Input
Amino acid sequence: MTFQAPKGTFDWLPPRSEQVLAVREALVAPVRLAGYGYVETPVFEDTQLFARGVGESTDIVSKEMYTFPDKAGRSLTLRPEGTASVVRAVLQHNLQAGQLPVKLWYSGSQFRYENVQKGRYRHFWQVGAEALGTEDPALDTELIVLAARGFAALGLRNVRLLLNSLGDKTCRPVYRAALQDFLRGLDLDDDTRARIEINPLRVLDDKRPEVQAQLTGAPLIVDHLCEGCKAYHEEVRSLLTASGIAFEDDPKLVRGLDYYTRTTFEFVHGGLGSQSAIGGGGRYDGLSEMLGGPPLPSVGWALGVDRTFLAMEAEGLLPETAPGRVQVYGVALGDDARRRMFHLVAELRGAGVSADMAFGGKGLKGAMKGADRSGARFALILGERDLAAGAAQVKDLTTAEQTEVPLAQVVDVLKGKVQ
RNA sequence: GUGGGUGUAGCUCAGUUGGCAGAGCGCCAGGUUGUGGUCCUGGAUGUCGAGGGUUCAAGUCCCUUCACUCACCCCA
Output
């Protein structure tokens, strides 16, 4: 072994790779049903997009970005999240000039230079959905319902939904000041004291018991919401309830990105080691302006594909046995038969029947082993004797029953059998 | 950045007070010169993570180092 995947990255191999593909598709399906359109943005962007969009004070920007200069000296960064890119694309192409909201979904790799542990890798995958340009609690709720539907479709039962409101530009600063006053009076380490000045809400998220113990009397945002935010939040809550989506109010739910306002939520699961979130999102009414655009109140989420996969593994939802790779497997004996088989297999594929064959000049026994391991229901056997007779043997590998079929009918017969 | 754990066959792992490098699964071949999955027989696969030291002798003891992994911090 001379090379291995870089630290914090890993390969998806069959059959898990097929399963994770299915996970991704299941998470995305509800969004597509709701009229969200697919957007694909570059894997790297101008570093400043993330610095301004995600926020200079966040850990993501201050120490977790994969930043590099290109040959012309531009500073580029591998995307650490998807929302900033989507907003950039919307603004660049003036999509907000059309009908609102602009509904988009995406799926792809994200990168953060973090210390590695279970459920946290330097290369990870998210699917995301964003609804831009409209302020409507029904839109926040729609997105939450769609995410919940995706998790439910995968069979996940132990997903919890945490919900909070972070207020807006009217009430958030007032609360922030009140919280800072409270936190400054606590006995905290230097790093945490520094965080009070930069991003005080994050302190609420501290997991250490000695910190949490001191936070019991902390002022909570729910008690400081302005009338507008309070009404908005209540509407989201009642729509969620009416939709039959269970959630827990979590007044200390804060997320790692600066741009969130009002509705914030997180889907958590216990099967990820010390990580917990399998998805999350919220409203980001000020992000467009932070990026130099017009006011564009928006809401969105991102769901962790690899984390969802871990959650499914923890719940025992991944099948033990791999599904068959193909339906028919060709076994040929002799050079002439091999050439004929090569074309028969191509014809089968052309007819919509998945097919593979033994390559590499294996003997009959080895080729039949290949047929067995492929998971194929039928082996298509062609030897010199069969070729001379203008026929092939079709063997049902589940019953060992074998019948002779004229070569001209092989494709039709197999097509009929696999349906 | 900090701490714990683990590195032996493709995979999962044994390996005793230092004394011939092992098992199961997988892989290959044969039993069956045209038939898989079960069964039987045989076979191949190793820088014991790397480097150094102690010793007649090191997978085993000592030092250094690297990787992986889990956790802290932090985060989806």
Q: What stands out?
A: The radius of gyration of chain A is 28 Å.
